[in-house]
Design brief:
By secondary structure, the chain is of the alpha/beta class. The protein is about 55% helix and about 10% strand. The protein has one domain: P-loop containing nucleotide triphosphate hydrolases (Rossmann fold, 3-Layer(aba) Sandwich), CATH 3.40.50.300. The chain is built from eight helices and five strands; from the N terminus they run E-H-E-H-H-H-E-H-E-H-H-E-H.
Length: about 190
């Protein structure tokens, strides 16, 4: 299959879970925009990025650096655009849906409360801390992507082919809805 897919949405909404499932089901490669950005951020350090890197102090500090220097994000987005245009890939990305044409673009919607519950379970942290982190990351993304690209992240969903409200669904239900959306487009 040469079709490319982008999964986007707020932090800790289930993007990676869905992207991995779609990649497996349709025989596509999976690329995480967050992992590419994380590699760029930790490339010259001895830091262990780990799966919860964005939620720790190092990841939060890097959010501040990104606000001051958009070159990190632009470099990652340029790389992801090339991968997307090459086809046969599922990419998780906050910005890519607004930067490319074609493929299938899926938005996972969910409340900060639900995202915080996912993060709490995934990273074994307190609910209040998880809520603070998800809210901060979301707010930073909104400001950063507005300043870099003029994107109204989380507000302008007109570029998406499929919008899935995840709060009342489990992962299997989200995967099933996204699978049907993919099958209708290929």
């Amino acid at each position: 299959m040469s079709h490319s897919v982008i999964v986007s949405g707020p932090p800790a909404v289930g993007k990676t879970t869905l992207a991995l499932a779609l990649a497996k089901k349709f025989g596509l490669r999976h690329v995480s925009g967050g992992d590419v950005l994380k590699e760029l951020a930790t490339d010259d350090t001895a830091a262990d990025p780990g799966t919860d890197w964005w939620d720790r102090k190092e990841g939060m500090d890097f959010l501040e650096r990104r606000m001051a220097d958009g070159s990190f994000d632009r470099k990652v987005d340029d790389h992801l655009i090339k991968l997307f245009n090459g086809g046969a890939v599922v990419i998780t990305s906050y910005t890519l849906p607004w930067l490319v044409e074609g493929g299938t673009k899926i938005w996972l919607a969910g409340s900060h409360k639900s995202s915080a519950q996912r993060m709490r379970a995934r990273d074994s942290i307190e609910q209040d801390e998880a809520h603070t982190i998800t809210q901060k990351r979301y707010d930073y993304n909104v400001r950063l992507y507005k300043s870099l690209y003029g994107i109204d992240f989380g507000a302008d969903l007109s570029v998406f082919d499929c919008i899935i409200e995840t709060d009342a669904l489990d992962a299997d239900e989200v995967i099933e809805i996204a699978t049907r959306a993919m099958e209708a487009r290929i």
